[in-house]
Amino acid sequence: xxxHLFGLPISTHRRLATESDGxxxxxxxxxxxxxxxxxxxxxxxxxxxxxxxxxxxxxxxxTHIVIPASRDWKVVQSHFQFDCRVHIARxxxxxxxxxxxxxxxxxxxxxKLDEIWLQKVSPSDLRHPLxxxxxxFRTSRNTEKYWHRCDVYSVERIREAEDLLSxxxxxxxxxxxxxxxxxxxxxxxxxxxxxxKHAISASNRRGTKEYRFCxxxxxxxxxxxRDDAGKAFIIEIxxxxxxxxxCNVTPWGHVRKG
Length: 258
Prior knowledge:
The protein is of the alpha+beta class. It is built from seven helices and 14 strands. It is elongated, with a radius of gyration of 20 Å.
């Protein structure tokens, strides 16, 4: 696991780096740690440059983000929800006054929680239901918004997420005409794992890794999507509603004609 502390004002960052002897024991072994300071105080907005730096760290695997509570934490959540874990370390005092021991306690707690979440909830292979695109895949009443309900931050809710994933498997993983099993959504669209991997993104071509629920997605991975009865269906491609019999869809909901 790679943990990224993001959002300490630079003066506080320098002080805590000294107090911690270079961030020693910031997270339990064998996990990795990196910290990126910001140029403003704890009430300021993150700059485009700071968010770009955060994206670059995510691209090399720092998908477990911890943010000291600040006014602008929701922008990070909006950019990285479902790709990364985004912990808000609510320290209940001005960030400029926090001690290293207090911050280290929060970092260790987030890491230990995510150890459980990775084991119980996070995808372990490309056939996991959390890789299905939430903007396109239609759920049932029992599986509604299951992506949101698996992005949880307490041990109790991790148990609930485990149970929910079992329901998703039962309701949406159905036999198909090839003799295998694949994902069937509430609109009777069939999402099949496509081994050809020809949906490589621009960031993949630049060598950036892409993650979904902290799982590294193989470059080019996508679903082959068809109506289960072979009918044409309507889907949005490039902002235009288009009738197709077949299309390719990535876990992020990017669509192209097959």
